[in-house]
Write a structure and sequence with these properties.
elongated, mainly alpha, single chain, 69 residues, 86% helix, 2 helices
Length: 69
């Protein structure tokens, strides 16, 4: 599970860094683009939290089952 958690976190951080690069790029930015990028960052964070929650819940249920044996 450790590897899966790190993979989810690495993917999330890479996505956030890509979004940050879009925000700081030296180019004109259209109306609403900053808002859209910030919304994408929030959506990425929600998705990461959901994936981590699932991984941790699955691990907790495995731990619970092994304690019953």
């Amino acid at each position: 599970m450790h590897g899966e958690i790190l993979a989810v976190l690495d993917a999330h951080l890479a996505e956030l860094q890509a979004l940050r690069r879009q925000l700081v790029a030296a180019r004109p930015i259209g109306p609403g683009q900053r808002w859209a990028i910030a919304a994408d960052a929030a959506a990425s964070s929600r998705q990461c939290a959901s994936r981590l929650t699932t991984l941790l819940a699955d691990d907790a249920s495995v731990d619970d089952a092994s304690m019953r044996v």
